[in-house]
């Protein structure tokens, strides 16, 4: 392979130097794709049972409420116990939920219609509650398994997992569902089976005890919030991420824009979402140059501004090729933004607070996306979908300029140099 191309590809050094990280990463790949199959199947099954888009939309509320109520409190648990054992427990719980989805898909007439819909909502709530503890705790593993110099590369590799699931799971789910005698049941069964790999990857990890166990109370939560507020780089990174997810990610507008611009063709609607996923996947696969970025805060601000500009182009694009290209740029910028934000969070945060900071990171990411749905939908209803997308993109750029000016610690933050490079 040409040397120049090798330099562009994602740095796989973390997979090479750490067998534990390699097992964890491989298991997460399989379980994340499986989880994507369940998300696809649940949305489709609820729609098939109700024929109501609003009923499908309630799945988002069912996921949001446990995320907001449990997420921050879960961080105190993460900072008070062996994180490996905690994630092993939540992974087993998530496997049980996936098995529950599979079980109810085989249920007969006693569990059908509206009764089955409420069972699905209940399983989604339990799944979101467990995820609100599992994901932040799992995020702490990177710093515990790898040296600081390898954290950006590891986060880029973790982002590959998300992008692969975002791009591949809906397509695989559609193919499986279309096969006679398989249908939605097969999606649930495959997800439940995939958890075996995830559980194995976590079980083989060494103990992950915090250096100093925290109390599991409101005071511990407030300690984490105070730490974030007093760390300019961290607070600025979280605010920049909110600017992107709330103002510049109008996925809720895709159906309306597709209807106005492309006649409502469902194939094109699928392409709009796929373009974001493909752009993000290509971005993280070609993330090799990120290893040379020493100022992740400044780079994050630039990526968020780029995403805002790309959404503004999306809002006024005259044809499908430019529309898809703009969304692909958004996906790539989003992938880089997540890597830079995670790098700052992992390198700034002391070990004893890492669980609480990762919990805040999870809540901000998940909650911001749901607020973005609400914001873009509200503006689109009051004005037009195109105006909502354009104003959101431009507002994102303005927000980045304000954050960079008012929180100089973010744009000035530099990663510590590895000892070998000193």
SSE topology sketch:
Elements: H1 3-8, H2 13-17, H3 19-50, H4 53-78, H5 83-105, H6 113-139, H7 141-145, H8 151-178, H9 183-203, H10 218-230, H11 232-247, H12 254-262, H13 266-285, H14 296-316, H15 320-348, H16 354-382, H17 385-406, H18 408-412
Helix pairs in contact: 3-4, 3-6, 3-8, 3-9, 4-6, 4-16, 5-6, 5-9, 6-16, 8-9, 8-13, 8-15, 11-14, 11-15, 11-16, 11-17, 12-13, 13-15, 14-15, 14-17, 16-17
Tell me what the structure shows.
This protein is 80% helix and 0% strand. With 422 residues, the chain is mainly alpha-helical. It folds into two domains: 203 residues, Up-down Bundle (Growth Hormone, Chain: A), CATH 1.20.1250; 200 residues, MFS general substrate transporter like domains (Growth Hormone, Chain: A). The mean pLDDT is 85.
